[in-house]
């Protein structure tokens, strides 16, 4: 007689997985990888946006520089044109000045020298002093011109001085004190009389 013992399958039950755990693992792995790539994408997106912002600023700065450059180019062209005009004017003035110097030298060494020699000779025969030299005459003319200019400038300052004198104690237009002549503040300066010409067309006057 044999007795059957309990089977191993009944004493140790087999564990069975609930659901598809392989798919869940794959899904979790892919989700983690997605988050990783999403963070990387966000980082690159932020870098691109920052670069675009800097690019916009650079573009605006480039436009401003171009506008400033155009203004400078226009100003440079204007200055170059003005410089060319100034060069042309300087050249013309130098040419005219050289012509005048040549003319002065030609007259001084030619007709003027002969005429002055004749005049000095005749004046010496008449017991008169010779005429001053041409250089002395030019210096005298220059001194007279400067003196006349100073007189004109002094006369131009007289009206402003008069107007300031009319204000007394902060009251403009105050009456003059009695006993004061009205013309006491008039300018007593007079212009120098015109210089007597050295040469004259009258032979009788030239002899004197």
Share of residues in strands: under 5%
Give me the strand/helix succession: HHHHH
**Low-pLDDT windows of residues:** 1-10, 186-208
* Overall morphology: rod-shaped
- Helix tally equals 5
Radius of gyration: 55 Å
Keywords: Coiled coil
Coiled coil: 55-125
Region (Disordered): 151-208
Biased composition (Basic residues): 175-191
Describe the structure.
This protein has helices at residues 8-11, 21-109, 111-125, 134-165, 203-207. The chain has 208 residues and is an all-alpha fold. The chain has a domain at 21-109. The longest helix is centred in the N-terminal third of the chain and has 89 residues, at 21-109. It is rod-shaped, with a radius of gyration of 55 Å. Residues 1-10 and 186-208 have low confidence and may be disordered. Residues 151-208 are annotated as: Disordered. Residues 198-208 have a biased composition (Polar residues). Residues 175-191 have a biased composition (Basic residues).
SSE arrangement:
Blueprint (H helix, E strand, L loop, with lengths): L7 H4 L9 H89 L1 H15 L8 H32 L37 H5 L1
Helix pairs in contact: 2-3
Label this structure with key terms.
208 residues, mainly alpha, 5 helices, coiled coil
Structure at a glance:
The protein has 208 residues and is an all-alpha fold.
